[in-house]
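User: Okay, second chain of the day. Same drill as before: sequence in, structure tokens out.
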Amino acid sequence: MSKKKFIIIIVLVFIILTIILINKPFGQIIMFSNNTVIDSNQSSVGKEKSDSNNETSQTKHGMIINDSLSNTTFQKEMIIPESYMKISIENDSSQNVTFTVNKDHSSGQQVMSGIVKPTSGYQKFYITAMLESGTYIITVSSGSAEMKGQLKVHIDTDINKLQADS
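Assistant: Same drill. Structure tokens below.
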């Protein structure tokens, strides 16, 4: 194959790939510090994708965190669209755990805090004022005792839907 034909083929492939990428609809992408990606592209709504760390991506509304609690402190960064938030914590440890949700960083403006007593089942907390889109940090701590339990965080633009979902 001549050099000229090879260059023509490369240029054609580049043009075809460019056309495909231009016509592909891009949704709002939300990325977490743990490499979880949420793609609100309508073609992916309702589909779950897993990466090699078994972390699950969701649509932009719904569950954004579903993690086990262990050690004495848990912290996770969330980048979210404008929405309401529901925090569900199951505390299977022997002591109370506390949680905070802060804007931008762990010492930023606190938007919610609470204490979760040891109990069976999930205790639910709602942020009923619409949160601005941006970065939020959730921190769960037990002081010096080992935590056991589960943390789930849901977001939605409809507070009634969050409160209706169990």
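Residues 19 and 106 are 43 Å apart (CA to CA).

User: Thanks, on to the next one.
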